[in-house]
Design a protein that fits this description.
The chain is of the alpha/beta class. Helix content is 49%, strand content 14%.
């Protein structure tokens, strides 16, 4: 379905982003992965995408919190058909204890980076009158939780940014911009949060996992990277050309409560 398209996925060296890159490659898209991690592990994933799906896959290691590096990455990538902004970091503390440097880092990676990538990629999409932009927001882009001032602010901002870009691109051919708002997805980021909560509360990781799910997700289950990736693939298809400016939940009932 996406044969010969070029997709760039930020934060795609592991977790949700890697799952998205693999799903797009399965549909025939050439892939650019981006993110931090062990050099050999990244190369293994890059080569695996090429081998398993018969597409081209490059790694561009730009620090997406830095606009100059993002501009260069988009230029080096070429004609981008699909942009998925997935990179994200987390920090949890009450607002009065929230370190200023952590606020700046979370906002830079979770919000400003998506502004930079869209700023530099959209001109080419408008020129070609075709493109798909998908921002991986969060249930926290729609509702709030305590201790997550920066993350909630950034993800709410990303949902708003998605709507603006959707409107600005609406009369420039077949270009859409949407946000996906996952609830808890079992990834290394969430696993760390579970372990941190377990240590803080003096309980086992399994009990902390159970408490996390019971608090938010109505069916007590995690979503999976594959489910998120499936929605990304659909939004990239012509069947979804009338969906733009939407914030689509995959949250096991979190935000309907």
């Amino acid at each position: 379905m996406l044969k010969n398209k070029l997709a760039i996925v930020t934060g795609s060296t592991s977790g949700i982003g890697l799952g998205i890159a693999q799903a797009l490659a399965k549909e025939g898209a050439n892939i650019i992965i981006n993110g931090f991690g062990d050099k050999d592990a990244i190369e293994k994933e890059r080569a695996g995408i090429e081998k398993n799906y018969g597409v081209k896959c490059r790694y561009l290691g730009a620090d997406i919190s830095k606009p100059q590096e993002v501009e260069k990455m988009i230029k080096d990538a070429g004609d981008i058909d699909i942009l998925v902004n997935n990179a994200g970091i987390q920090f949890v503390a009450p607002i009065e204890e929230f370190p200023l440097e952590k606020w700046d880092a979370v906002i830079a990676t979770n919000l400003s980076a998506s502004f930079y990538t869209m700023k530099y990629a959209l001109a080419g999409m408008k020129k070609r009158k075709s493109g798909r932009i998908i921002n991986i927001a969060s249930a926290h882009g729609l509702v709030a939780s305590t201790g997550k001032t920066a993350y909630v602010a950034a993800k709410h901002g990303l949902v708003g940014l998605t709507k603006v870009v959707a409107l600005e691109a609406a009369n420039n051919g077949n270009i859409t911009c949407n946000a996906i708002c996952p609830g808890w997805v079992y990834t290394p980021l969430v696993e760390k949060q579970i372990n941190d909560n377990a240590k803080k509360e003096g309980i086992s990781p399994d009990k902390a996992k159970e408490e996390m799910l019971k608090e938010k997700q109505a069916n007590f289950e995690f979503a999976t990277p594959e489910q998120i990736a499936g929605l990304v693939v659909y939004l990239c298809s012509d069947l979804a050309k009338s969906i733009t400016g939407a914030a689509l939940s995959i949250d096991n009932g979190w935000t309907c409560q």
